[in-house]
Amino acid sequence: MTWTSTMSSGYSSLEEDCEEYFFTARTSFFKKPSGKLADPKDAEKEKDLRTHLSYEEIRHKIDLYNAATRDHFKMTLNPDGLYTGFIMVQLELRRPITVTRGVAGTKEGEAFYLPCGAVNTLHISSSNTVQQVIEALLNKFTVADNPAKFALYKRFCRDDHVCVCKLSEGEHPLFLRLLAGPNLDTLSFVLREQQTGEVLWDAFSIPELHNFLRILDKEEQDQVRVITARYNIYREKLEEAIQATSSHN
């Protein structure tokens, strides 16, 4: 099942869970190249930069960022040195997710596919980590799946190649956005399943596994119908050729 309804927009506060943790979800749809994986070597560089940047340096970078952005997604610097702003996260989930309550025509506990290429704009703080961003996205869509199943990647260009690098849980996406500037061609964020090389079936609940079986059964039936129809066409053409040859004889 694919969820095709329009996702809600507007501010959603999570201040009851964390005073510095809030986000906005807005949705658009587009597709970009999946890119190739790059070695994740930027976490330490980010830590060093974040440690050594002064308040004035951050303010200067925010001024440059806000001057370069062409939309209303600007950053705001607080007196304590923290700043808030927006990041866009593209959803590239290949496996179905399970919701905790019915949304957009789905039932509680039902597995369905999020539309590939959907983009959510999150309003976050510079203190928010990759792990918190992942949890915010899952909470927004009332996803019951374990956050450990997902990872946040950054997509960027290097030597005319599109690269994709997995971010560590402790990195700060808004800081990366600030350093890269507002241009999404320079840096964008992507939510994907963990690239472990194999599916960690133990991480799924029994209802999730049953939902996967139902989805696989439906896909199998669809493929059988397609293949059967194809061979029926071949059979009809062969029979027509046999009849044509027999009539000529």
TrEMBL record:
Residue intervals of the SARAH domain: 198-245
Pfam families, sorted: Nore1-SARAH, RA
Domain of life according to the entry: Eukaryota
Signal peptide: none
Cellular component, GO annotation: cytoplasm
SUPFAM superfamilies assigned to the protein according to its UniProt record, in alphabetical order: Ubiquitin-like (SSF54236)
Any one Gene Ontology BP term: signal transduction
Residue ranges occupied by any Ras-associating domain in the UniProt entry: 112-196
PANTHER family on file: RAS ASSOCIATION DOMAIN-CONTAINING PROTEIN 3, RASSF
Protein known as: Ras association domain-containing protein 3
Species the sequence originates in: Ameiurus melas (Black bullhead)
Upper lineage: Eukaryota, Metazoa, Chordata, Craniata, Vertebrata
